[in-house]
Design goal:
binds magnesium ion, Nucleotidyltransferase, domain 5, 13 strands, 2 domains, 16 helices, binds acetylphosphate, globular, binds adenosine-5'-diphosphate, alpha/beta
């Protein structure tokens, strides 16, 4: 197949993208970029394969920085980079596939409708991915589109990990633990299999720490358990989401404070987590630079839950051979990695501080019982990998 494929990753705080040559596979992107800081101060940057900057733009406070407007700008720019006949497919990251989508699919009207029905379970992500699909369909109707699911990687989870302790009728209608960040975990599993097959075959906890954050317990490269569940709210403290929360708090807000469901949804998705704790920003970079006591308190809670979560995932695996950091915080925040690993010394974690500061691929101390690695997230590559065969099928 010839032509260009666009991989689009609609995250909660970012729109990441990459352009691949279909006949060269998903290994090397021709262009990579992202709009980060969505919801705060958006910043677009894109680079070519040699790392040269192709475009850089910052949005000021007065400009339209909504997801929709930013997507429009991005698609226009991508248009300017690809001739009309050149773009042959767009692959999308779709956060929630529910029970029905456990493998990538071609997007058609029925798929769009089924994915639309899952929007209430992922309001921070799903609508943006679907908007992107509609925008591409309107703008380039001849371009085939695919949906690649975050939930799919967790289809292998252990049976108890899939369930809530609720009456089975609810499970039968889909109230189950699905798990997310699956495209990122797929990339980590593939990367480990390439660079460290012995570790890939073992018991590994992967910490995807970005604006959204979760943990995955992987045995032999397959998901056994994960910290997110029915929605992308559960588990770790995130930029604007609280992570694990006693459901009694929701009842209290509903019954005693008479909050509307909409107000509670806003609290849980947009006003909690690091942002809620500090009353300011949910951006870890800014918190690490801050001298405010609230910033340190928020980081302390983030680390408390992270270490607790890694312990829980190690228990799900019956031991731990490796810990992998990925995502914006996992890749770039050395102090967070250092403090998390210090808390986990009892599990056999010990860092080589210089390697950690330099963000080397392996950051554990030589001879430490648990290998600690950094694997840069690349959900776009997984999207391209999963989309290419589907696009080629219809191309024949
Ligand atoms: N150098 C850094 N130090 C600390 N945190 C960082 C750094 N670079 C990025 N981050 C954090 O990474 C997060 C975004 O991660 P990313 O995985 O790109 O987000 P998304 O979940 O939207 O895909 C932000 O909270 C940002 O503060
Ligand atoms: C599932 C999820 O939270 O994704 P992100 O980290 O991109 O917000
Ligand atoms: Mg992300």
């Amino acid at each position: 197949m010839r032509g260009t494929i666009l991989a689009l990753n609609s995250g909660s705080s970012s729109l990441k993208f990459a352009l691949f040559e279909a006949d060269r596979g998903a290994r090397a992107a021709r262009v990579r970029g992202q709009i980060e800081g969505i919801g705060a101060t958006p910043h677009l940057i894109a680079k070519d394969a040699a790392g040269a900057c192709l475009i850089e733009r910052r949005w000021s406070a007065g400009e339209d920085g909504t997801h929709e407007a930013l997507l429009g700008t991005l698609l226009d720019w991508i248009d300017s980079q690809t001739g009309a006949a050149e773009l042959v497919g767009v692959g999308h990251r779709v956060v929630h596939g529910g029970r029905d989508f456990t493998a990538p699919v071609r997007v058609d009207a029925a798929v769009l409708a089924a994915l639309e029905a899952l929007c209430p379970l992922a309001p921070l992500h799903q609508p943006h991915a679907l908007n992107a699909m509609r925008a591409v369909a309107a703008h380039r109707p001849q371009v085939a589109q695919t949906a690649c699911f975050d939930t799919a990687f967790h289809a292998t989870m252990a049976e108890p990990a899939r369930h809530f302790a609720l009456p089975p009728d609810l499970a039968r209608e889909g109230v189950l633990r699905y798990g997310f960040h699956g495209l990122s975990y797929t990339h980590v599993a593939h990367t480990l299999a390439d660079i460290d097959p012995a570790l890939a075959a073992g018991r590994v906890v992967v910490a995807h720490l970005g604006a959204g954050a979760s943990l995955c317990a992987m045995a032999g490269g397959r998901s056994v358990d994960t910290s997110m569940g029915f929605s992308a709210l559960d588990g770790l403290v995130m930029a604007t989401r609280p992570g694990a929360l006693d459901p009694g708090v929701i009842l209290y807000l509903l019954q005693h404070k008479h909050w509307s469901p909409e107000r509670i949804e806003t609290l849980l998705y947009k006003e909690s987590g690091l942002k809620g704790l500090t009353g300011g920003t949910g951006d870890m970079r800014a918190l690490l630079e801050s001298t405010e006591p609230a910033a340190e308190a928020a980081i302390a809670l983030f680390l408390w839950r992270l270490a607790q979560g890694v312990g829980a995932m190690a228990a799900a695996l019956g031991g731990l051979d490796g810990l992998v950091f990925t995502g914006g915080i996992g890749e770039h925040a050395a102090p967070i990695r250092a403090r998390a690993c210090a808390r986990l010394a009892w599990l056999g974690l010990a860092l080589d501080q210089a390697a950690n500061e330099a963000a080397r691929p392996v950051i554990s101390a030589p001879g430490a019982p648990v290998t600690v690695r950094i694997v840069p997230a690349d959900e776009e590559r997984v999207i391209a990998d999963q989309s290419l065969p589907l696009l080629a099928e219809t191309d024949r």
